[in-house]
Amino acid sequence: xxxxxxxxxxxxxxxxxxxxxxxxxxxxxxxxxxxxxxxxxxxxxxxxxxxxxxxxxxxxxxxxxxxxxxxxxxxxxxxxxxxxxxxxxxxxxxxxxxxxxxxxxxxxxxxxxxxxxxxxxxxxxxxxxxxxxxxxxxxxxxxxxxxxxxxxxxxxxxxxxxxxxxxxxxxxxxxxxxxxxxxxxxxxxxxxxxxxxxxxxxxxxxxxxxxxxxxxxxxxxxxxxxxxxxxxxxxxxxxxxxxxxxxxxxxxxxxxxxxxxxxxxxxxxxxxxxxxxxxxxxxxxxxxxxxxxxxxxxxxxxxxxxxxxxxxxxxxxxxxxxxxxxxxxxxxxxxxxxxxxxxxxxxxxxxxxxxx
Length: 356
Fold this sequence. Notes:
Helix content is 43%, strand content 20%. The protein is α/β, with parallel strands linked by helices. Strand 8, helix 8 (192-205) and strand 9 (212-216) form a beta-alpha-beta unit.
C-alpha cells in the first residue's frame, strides 16, 4: 500500500525538525513494509525569496493531491504582521483547512516538567482542543475609525451554519475515536454567535447518540482545565476561545515542544504540524538543539487520523516514550542525570526504537 505525503519544511528550525520526522517515517516504512511517496514543497520565507510568493500554486496543488501534509512551520524572519496574517489565511483558505486540533497529554516520562500536582498527573489526561478555522473575528472585517471619544476599533465575529457544522462534525468524530465526551465552549449570555453554535451543536448531537455533549462557558472551562484536566476529552468551539484554551492546556505539560497538532481537511485529509507552530526559533537555526518530538508526534498523528495506520502511530508514540524514559533529553528537557542530545540525536534515539 502507498500513501502520498506532501511535506513543507518551511522556515527557521522547520527544516531540521522535518528531517527527523522523515527519518522516523522512513523507519516506520521499513518496519511495517509500507511505502510513503514523499513530495517536497516550498512555502514561507524560502518560497518568497525564490518565487516572490509565500505560497506558490504548485505547492497548493501538491498538497491537495496528497493524502496528507506535514508542515514544519512558516513565518518570515522579520514579518510584517499584516503579511504574516494574510499568509496564514491564504494557506487555510486554499488548502481548505476546517478545524485546528491540538491533542494535549502528559506521559509519565514528562511528569517532572508539568505544573500539575502529582495526584492530578496520576489520574492522567488526554485533551483534544479543537477550534474552527473559517469563521470568527480572524477571517471577518476589521475596522478602525475616529469617534466622539477618540479612536474606535471594531472586529466582526460572523459564523454561518455550515462553518459550525463542519467543526462540530470534526469534534464529534474525534470524540468517537477517543472517550466519547465533548464540551462545547461558548458564551451564550447575549452573544448571537455563541447561541448559534449551541443550537447547531445540540441539533447535530441527535446524529451522534454515542457522544456525550455538554456546554461550558469559556471562563469556567479555563478554570476546570487548570483544576482537573482529566474530566475533559474533546473541548471545541469558536476560534478565539479554542486558541486560548489550547495554549493553556499545552502549558500544563511544561514541555510544549513535545506536542503535535493537526488541521482537518475534506475527505479525511489533514495538515499536520507542531503544537508550537509559530515558534521558528531563528536563534537556534544550525545549532542542532531544538526538540524534534513535536514534529515527530505530528507524523504519528498523520498516521493515526489521515492514513488510517494506528499501529504505526502507536509504535512512534511508544518509541518516543522509551527514548525519554531512557534519559535522552534535548536542551529544553535537560535535567541532572539525563543524557543531552541534539535535534538529530533525539531523532536517532526515537527511530531506533520504532518496532511492531
